[in-house]
TrEMBL record, chain A:
Transmembrane segments: none annotated. It comes from the Bacteria. Residues 6-81 form the Carrier domain. It holds the Pfam family PP-binding. InterPro entries: ACP-like_sf (IPR036736), PP-bd_ACP (IPR009081). This is Carrier domain-containing protein.
TrEMBL record, chain B:
GO terms for biological process: enterobactin biosynthetic process. GO terms for molecular function: holo-[acyl-carrier-protein] synthase activity; magnesium ion binding. This is Enterobactin synthase component D. Mg(2+) binds at D108, I109, E110. Pfam families: 4PPT_N, ACPS. Involved in the biosynthesis of the siderophore enterobactin (enterochelin), which is a macrocyclic trimeric lactone of N-(2,3-dihydroxybenzoyl)-serine. The serine trilactone serves as a scaffolding for the three catechol functionalities that provide hexadentate coordination for the tightly ligated iron(2+) atoms. Belongs to the P-Pant transferase superfamily. EntD family.
């Protein structure tokens, strides 16, 4: 487990980088488009929720799955980090 | 307990096991065509899923069905039918049954989890009670994750609300009792905390296959 050793605070750039890695996608991600269309599946959503939890940001799977876009997830993470 | 199927037949054997567990329903698997790029892959998965649903429906009723697509991407079933679709590892699986007998169906397939991924997702996919009972064993983490996916697919349209992975937990089976999903909170009238639902749990060499039939 290397999750808890990362010091980077998750933000939009972190999320974007993680998504590019999780989705094995070569192109840029449209921030308003559903990530489902980029091949995001429930296991990957679960992995991301687990990574965020390891960073101290408690976002439920369902919080992420309800609106799976980069824009929505950035807002969610910002709200949880500041709240 | 969930049986771990071995041997070359794997998915076919798992499919036969699923069919035997739900004799009033039909399941079918269709391979997903190989494509370039995530969007083309998603479209190929969608097609394979709908073809699997048509095959399952043809087996059940003698007529292939054309499942529509709801706003949230979930399939819309023609009158008289209910069902569920899942894809993973280049295969699409559909489970279809009669809506007169089944209030909801959910099915899910997942590839095998590595011990590392199982340990990563366990803190979110499993409740503390489940982690105490099942640890981070990759097969059990996969089965529990998948069974909760199946529960969501079967129950969420029925009660008109979404819920998270902590809304249910898997109770371990015993000598005379299979593992059961137990709701941990009140989701809707008739679906209160403590309600138990028996999932179909099948582990095989290429991953897991689960179903929830309400």
């Amino acid at each position: 487990m290397t999750l808890t050793t990362t010091s980077t605070v998750p933000d939009r750039d972190w999320l974007s980088a993680r998504l590019n890695s999780l989705l094995e996608d070569e192109g840029p991600i449209d921030p308003a488009e559903s990530l489902i269309y980029y091949g995001l599946d429930s296991l990957r959503v679960m992995k991301l929720a687990a990574e965020l939890k390891a960073h101290g940001i408690h976002v439920g799977f369902e919080d992420l799955a309800r609106e799976p876009t980069l824009d929505a997830w950035t807002a969610l993470i910002d709200a949880r980090r500041d709240g | 307990m969930a049986e771990c199927l071995r041997g070359p037949a794997r998915v076919e054997a798992a499919l036969a096991r699923l069919g035997a567990a739900l004799p009033d329903c039909r399941a079918a698997v269709v391979p997903v065509a190989r494509t370039e790029g995530p969007k083309a892959r998603r479209a190929a998965e969608f097609r394979a899923g709908r073809l699997a649903a048509a095959a399952a429906s043809a087996s059940l009723t003698g007529m292939p069905c054309l499942a529509g697509r709801g706003a949230d991407g979930a399939p819309l079933w023609p009158a008289g039918l209910t069902g569920s679709i899942s894809h993973s590892g280049g295969q699409a699986l559909a489970l279809v049954g009669p809506s007169a007998r089944r209030a909801g169906l959910g099915v899910d397939i997942e590839g095998p989890l590595s011990p590392r991924v199982a340990a990563e997702i366990a803190p979110v996919a499993l409740t503390p009670e489940e982690r105490a009972c099942f640890g981070t064993d990759p097969v059990w983490v996969g089965l529990i994750f998948s069974a909760k996916e199946s529960l969501f697919k079967a129950l969420s349209p029925r009660i008109g609300r979404r819920f998270d992975f902590d809304a249910a937990r898997l109770l371990p089976g015993g000598a005379t009792q299979p593992p059961l999903l137990c709701l941990t909170c009140d989701l809707a009238p008739g679906w209160e905390a403590g309600r138990r639902i028996e999932p179909v749990l099948i582990a095989h060499e290429q991953g897991v296959m689960t179903a929830v039939a309400l």
